[in-house]
TrEMBL record:
<feature type="domain" description="Radical SAM core">
    <location>
        <begin position="31"/>
        <end position="287"/>
    </location>
</feature>
<protein>
    <recommendedName>
        <fullName>Radical SAM core domain-containing protein</fullName>
    </recommendedName>
</protein>
<dbReference type="InterPro" id="IPR058240">
    <property type="entry name" value="rSAM_sf"/>
</dbReference>
<keyword id="KW-0411">Iron-sulfur</keyword>
<keyword id="KW-0949">S-adenosyl-L-methionine</keyword>
<dbReference type="Pfam" id="PF16199">
    <property type="entry name" value="Radical_SAM_C"/>
</dbReference>
<keyword id="KW-0479">Metal-binding</keyword>
<dbReference type="GO" id="GO:0046872">
    <property type="term" value="F:metal ion binding"/>
</dbReference>
<dbReference type="Pfam" id="PF04055">
    <property type="entry name" value="Radical_SAM"/>
</dbReference>
<keyword id="KW-0408">Iron</keyword>
<dbReference type="GO" id="GO:0003824">
    <property type="term" value="F:catalytic activity"/>
</dbReference>
<dbReference type="InterPro" id="IPR007197">
    <property type="entry name" value="rSAM"/>
</dbReference>
<keyword id="KW-0004">4Fe-4S</keyword>
<dbReference type="InterPro" id="IPR023404">
    <property type="entry name" value="rSAM_horseshoe"/>
</dbReference>
<dbReference type="GO" id="GO:0051539">
    <property type="term" value="F:4 iron, 4 sulfur cluster binding"/>
</dbReference>
<dbReference type="InterPro" id="IPR039661">
    <property type="entry name" value="ELP3"/>
</dbReference>
<dbReference type="InterPro" id="IPR032432">
    <property type="entry name" value="Radical_SAM_C"/>
</dbReference>
Length: 323
């Protein structure tokens, strides 16, 4: 199944059961008879948009000090081995037997490929680890890095790139100070697909200056490129960011909850029915650093509201997608 990508027959069975969204969790339950947990790890890897290679400021929504993570043992002060083993031990007590290792904060394909390979080899050396998820930027997938990852795919591991995309529009990427182009996004997705590496794109709704049409274009363009999965978030203003300055100057307003649910459903209607949806909201952002919005971002509550809205509309994911 891995080299062929997402199994469409399984996705169709999800819709036949009455679910309006191709939820990643439902899909995974169907292809695996056992529970799998993603262990987040922090190896202290940096980002070229902050270390001075491209810029020192980073994206306008990214806190200068990085985003605090509230997962116990996911902390670069511990060795990778310790982070994996402590979390694995805790999850095994709950009956979970198989794992992905999710290299999460920073740009996890940026740096010396040999050093990265050492980290990935260590993560994959555990017999209960079935694959990796690597959070990264579209301009940080060198041929060397992709060759290493393709090597893992050939050995039967499931490799996911968690790709920060945010928008498919250059004017928005520039405004966000992403410091990469749409062409990097296209190349990254196509190169991964060619090598049997899965791509989960991260997209933000409600970005400054983006129109409804542009957001729908992002859904359709990523679908046409054959992206495997999406994590969709509302834009959150956090302290110590350029976005916070824009917010206090009155140059940006976050979406209210109702607007977000509506936009999210519209976005999903314009996304291919075969793209798996991993998330429809953010991980919990600590209240002490959140400036706006004030409504709860809880993933489960948002998902329930999206399902209710689809029932009200009588539609589902992909209904307006023309491939
Ligand atoms: S690419 Fe990611 S880590 Fe780097 S500045 Fe932007 S949001 Fe932050």
């Amino acid at each position: 199944m891995y080299k062929l990508g997402i199994n469409r027959e399984i996705v169709e069975s999800i819709y036949r059961e009455g679910h309006p969204i191709a939820q990643y969790g439902l899909y995974m339950k169907k292809i695996r008879p056992y529970k799998v947990f993603k262990i987040p790890v922090d190896c202290g890897l940096v980002c070229p948009n902050k270390d001075g290679t491209l810029d020192t400021e980073g994206c306008i929504f990214c806190p200068k000090m990085g985003r605090p993570i509230s997962v116990k043992y996911c902390d670069s002060k511990y060795s990778l081995k310790y982070q994996i083993e402590k979390q694995m031990e805790n999850q095994k007590k709950k009956g979970i037997g198989k794992f992905y290792i999710y290299f999460y904060p920073g740009t996890n394909t940026y740096g010396d490929p040999e050093r990265l390979k050492e980290l990935w080899d260590l993560a994959l050396s555990y017999s209960d680890v079935i694959g990796l998820s690597l959070g990264t930027r579209p301009d940080c997938l060198s041929r060397e890095v992709l060759d290493i990852l393709e090597g893992y795919v050939k050995r039967g591991y499931e490799i996911w790139i968690d790709l920060g995309i945010q928008s498919f529009h250059q004017k928005t990427l520039d405004l966000l100070n992403r410091r990469h182009n749409v062409s990097h996004i296209i190349k990254a997705i196509l190169e991964c697909k060619r090598r049997g590496i899965f791509v989960c794109g991260h997209v933000i709704l409600g970005l400054p200056g983006e129109t409804w049409k542009e957001m729908m274009d992002t859904a359709e363009s990523l679908s046409r490129l054959g992206i495997d999965a999406l994590k969709i978030y509302p834009l959150v203003v956090v302290k110590d960011t350029k976005l916070e300055e824009m917010y206090w100057r009155g140059e940006y307003r976050t979406l209210d909850r109702k607007q977000y649910i509506k936009l999210l459903c519209d976005f999903l209607e314009h996304t291919s029915p075969y793209v798996l949806i991993q998330r429809v909201s953010k991980d919990k952002v600590p209240e002490e650093i959140t400036v706006s919005p004030e409504w709860k971002l809880s993933r489960l509550a948002i998902l329930n509201d999206v399902i209710t809205e689809f029932k009200r509309r009588g539609t589902r994911q992909g209904i307006y997608f023309r491939g």
